[in-house]
Design brief:
four-stranded mixed β-sheet, Immunoglobulin-like
């Protein structure tokens, strides 16, 4: 009786072991199938696929921990306290300098450069005379003195020596009338004969019933020839004055007088 029962028990044990092994195999197969069935992550390259060329990122990179966050508000709006794009800087002039004033400033600069160039030329001529001709040159001083009456305002003054402009000044406001002396030239000059030409322009000035004088301009021109000897110097004073009297017409009153004095040895 024991032999058949033992055989039956052994058969049942073997069947249980076989079922357990089959169940374990099914579990392993199902797990493997799930792993295979899961989709690949975005951007992951499959085996055998070609790597695509690098492209710029369409979206900005995520902010790193600790990085400053942008201020909340509309896109493109400047931060509080920051000047708007294109806004005029603080303290900038509200209007540009008028064109006529800029042109006047440029004209004054050009004339100043001309004066400097003439003085440099005069020095070169003196050195040339001293080196090549053996002379020691000469010196000259030219001064303009304004003695015009209250009915006139000096607005422009031009000096030329031997046809070359050596001094020019212009001011339509009449502020030049307050300057009584103008230093025209002080330096070396070539010995010999020279011609000094002067042009002075005045504007009428008056109050009350004589206010109409401001509409008139008076031009006076004059020239003077002088000679400076080698090794000597001279001073020329050109005086602008009002000649005549109350019966003299206004256009005939402005005049220029030349006073030449030779420096003593």
């Amino acid at each position: 009786m024991r032999s058949p029962m033992s055989a039956a028990r052994c058969g049942s044990a073997l069947r249980l072991v076989g079922l357990t092994a089959a169940l374990a195999a099914v579990v392993v197969i199902a797990t493997t199938a799930e792993v295979i069935a899961q989709p690949a992550p975005a951007g992951a390259a499959k085996p055998g696929d070609k790597q695509p060329a690098a492209r710029p990122a369409d979206k900005p990179a995520a902010a790193k921990p600790g990085a400053a966050k942008p201020v909340a508000g509309k896109a493109g709006a400047p931060a509080a306290g920051a000047p708007a794009v294109g806004a005029a800087p603080t303290g900038a002039p509200s209007s540009e300098v008028p064109v006529n004033i800029r042109l006047r400033q440029l004209e004054q600069r050009v004339q100043a450069l001309k004066e400097r160039a003439w003085r440099a030329k005069a020095r070169v001529e003196m050195l040339k005379e001293a080196v090549l001709g053996g002379g020691i040159g000469a010196r000259a001083g030219i001064i303009h003195i304004n003695k015009m009456g209250s009915s006139y305002r000096l607005v422009q003054l031009i000096y030329a020596l031997d046809g070359t402009t050596i001094f020019t000044r212009k001011d339509d406001s009449g502020a030049m009338h307050e300057t009584k002396n103008f230093d025209i030239l002080s330096g070396p000059i070539t010995p010999g004969s020279h011609t000094l030409s002067v042009m002075a322009i005045y504007r009428g000035h008056g109050y009350g019933v004589f206010r109409y004088l401001k509409k008139y301009k008076f031009t006076v021109k004059s020239s003077h020839t002088f000679t400076v000897d080698e090794g000597k110097g001279l001073t020329i004073r050109v005086i602008g004055y009002e000649r005549g009297g109350t019966t003299t017409p206004l256009e005939d009153r402005p005049a220029l007088d030349f006073q030449v004095s030779v420096a003593k040895e």
